[in-house]
Fold RBR-type E3 ubiquitin transferase.
Amino acid sequence: MADSDEREEELTTLSAIYPELVPSSEDFYGATLEIPVSPSQPLLVRFVPSKAAGDISLNKRGKTSIKAAAYIERDVELSHLPPLTLHMSLPEGYPQSKPPQVQLEAQEDWLPSDKLKELEKQAEALWEDFGRCQTLFSYIDYLQQAAESGFDLAFSTDGCLVLPMAVEKALVTYDAETKGALFDAGTYECGICIEPKKGTSCYRLSRCGHVFCKSCLQEFYNSAIKEGDVANVKCLSPDCGKKGTTANGKILRQTTTSRAIHPRELLAMGLEDKMVRRFVEMKRKKKLEADKQTVYCPRTWCQGAAKSPKYPPIPADLATYPDDESDDESTGKDSAPPQPSKQPADAPPIDPEDRIAVCEKCNFAFCRVCYRGWHGQFARCYPRDPNELSAEEKASYDYILSNTSPCPTCSSPTQKTYGCNHMICFNCRTHYCYLCGSWLDGRDPYQHFNQPGRECYQRLFELEEGENGQAPGDGRGFAGARRWEQMAIEVAREADAREAAEAAQAAEDEQAARALEAEERAEADGPENELAEAVAQVQINDNPIPEAAQQRPNAHARRRNPFPAHPRAGGAAAAVRYHERQAGNARGGRRPAVNNDERRQAELQRFLDMAERDEEEGWNSDELDEDEDFRIR
């Protein structure tokens, strides 16, 4: 009777301490209690895929080996784990002669079975240590303390809790839901409006932990996305991401690292799906436009960007959008230096990116060099616009054009370093001539070089030392397509030289015309106008004749035009015009410099003509009084 009273008394006491204690319906002295597991420090859990039978195979030595895919694992830190269920029963004779009977069960089977047995044995050990008295409360307290320390799983051989990947989703979901429930039950101060609000009206950013009310976040982020300011879709705390190094209380350096908010969080804040999708599309577009390696579709009606593993397409479900570490932006003079490449030192050099590109909109496959439909990896093509090439790319294509011969079958460029001109393509195994590009019969490839009349006759070992060694014999050089390419290069060079010579000739002709014009102007003005002659001489000195014109014989003879556009008029009519111009200039205009002999002859002829008509009285000789040589005495 005393035992029954003690068992009932202990269960009643436990019910008062733990209201969540559930009495057993089958055992009057039994009960069930859930022990929450929330370690003080997040517990590192490593999820490892289960080793399927197909992953195990025999190697060359006959030993079993596991494929590399079986070793793919993922580490996750969990702050909340599914609780332990404690089933306890007080047998007859407890506590004097028998210990309590306990059984532990972990939801989702996350706790190893050997750990569960170890915890169960601790109930009997405590009963013995406490002198065989009531120990259920002490045992429950022991379990709670063990759960707070993570059951010391961090100190295991692996340094973490290792579980199969099959339970990852359940444990991660439970951790997130538990965090959300605890957050909703609290009260927080918004970092924007500075007002206390319940957790159900707030949102905590997953990366930095800053808390803001959802209404403030929605208003700010919706406005930023509408205006296209995607760079400001990040934490709104001014101190977020700032890191400082202090020495003697002084800040030596300070850097800021910020990252755009993940679309999954924007949806959790309450933003509409179309607004979040606009944000993702604009962010991806900015990255494509900023990347110089982005190639766009050559179709004028498409102009879509080519598919690239760096910028995967946006998934239909934005919650599954991958995390992008490239969104991190560091500012400040003392930012952390870039991490060195993890590529091993003995790794082979990375091949240049393939030329094939596929439009992500219309799925058109094209060559990123010539922008035409895809023609194969080894086809010889040239850029559509050479101005779009860098200096290195242009030099590479010029070198290929000048120092390689294309295969007649697949156009794979080949350069010979030594040996004969019988070539075998490394790609398609075609036999061909290095000089003219002709197909050769693989059974007797050398008959091509032994047939008189052919351009390659007796030229099997021409250029034996390679492209940069021995010069082509007898001045013939290459034949076939290679010759036409080199002829085209030479024609282009000659055209450039001719264009430069024509430009120099045009400048020379212009200079000579200017000099001739100056001489004609000075000759028309007469020797009395010394100022005009000096100005013409200054113009000639300021614009000297080009050196190329000076070196050409009779270069200066071209300065005088033997057939002027307006030859000087002569006769009586011209003399009258000169006289009238002279009279007009004397009345107020500028008097031109006219040859004195011509003027006197014109005036005399005019006087004689007027005398024949008995009009000599109308002749005014006052203008000639100043001329002593012409005065009538």
Observations:
- The CA atoms of residues 6 and 12 lie 10 Å apart.
- The mean pLDDT is 75.
